[in-house]
Amino acid sequence: MTTQPTPSTHRPSHRLSPSAHPLGIDFGGTGIKGAPVDLELGDFAQERVRVRTPQPATPEAVAAVFSELLAHFPDATGPVGVTVPGIVRHGVVHSAANIDGSWVGTDADRLITEATGREVHVVNDADAAGLAEVRYGAARGREGLVIVTTLGTGIGAALVFDGVLVPNAELGHLEIGGRDAETWAANSAREREDLSMAAWAERLTTYYRTLEKLFSPDLFVVGGGVSKRSDEFLPLLDLDTEIVPASLRNKAGVVGAALYACEG
Ligand code: BGC
């Protein structure tokens, strides 16, 4: 007799009416941003609210800030999606390269659901950006393998094949030249070492060429705050694969989190 796997209670599967606006929250090292999202348009349904990330940014302290943020949007009653810059499996956080170490092992779905009294689903930040760019942004309508990368404090990466996300790719932590790639090629490395765009572009070429060798993708999308300066570095990259800037820019996390909360 074959037994059916028990469906995970962590997997969001809502079909909201088109007029419902789930909330997306983007949890970053310095700021926490949230807004109700219009999933038809892939855009904020109301102006977003930004609050400072508490320090230390422990799960409990951050969850309390999420509750405050939710109070700004009393009409957004659906599920809530939250990005976390770490590996997330079945609602539990498994890594914390650039956030407080106490997140590791935290059942964030449960903790934030209990703290806020709302149904919360957490998702890796790059995966949220990847979902949003594929559904509404720079990779909309693209078939095959799209790799969405975010260049910030770390390097986030989402692998999306024919519109389906393979979660937690964590390609920022590939070892390249004996180093953790993000410590050498993230935007934070450019700032820390005061690299020229040309010098940084050389490192990015090495990084994206490694991804090409491993995955033969059809498209790279480059997000993160620095993507608004993409004219200054993308033309300097020497790659075989098409590479384009993200189009949702700093909305991708919030929009992708809301989408994830509804569709997984
Ligand atoms: C983390 C990833 C995250 C990325 C961008 C990395 O250090 O390991 O989970 O997506 O930073 O925030």
Please characterize this protein's 3D structure:
- It is built from eight helices and 15 strands.
- With 264 residues, the protein is α/β, with parallel strands linked by helices.
- The chain folds into two domains: 18-127 and 252-263, 2-Layer Sandwich (Nucleotidyltransferase, domain 5), CATH 3.30.420.40; 141-246, ATPase, nucleotide binding domain (Nucleotidyltransferase, domain 5, 2-Layer Sandwich), CATH 3.30.420.
- Helix 1 packs across helix 2 (108-116) and helix 3 (125-136) crosses helix 8 (252-263).
- The chain starts with 22 loop residues before the first strand and ends with a helix.
- Mean pLDDT is 93; it is low at 1-8.
- The chain binds beta-D-glucopyranose.
- Residues 85-87, 95, 97-98, 124-126, 150, 152, 154, 156, 170, 172, 182 line the site of beta-D-glucopyranose (BGC).
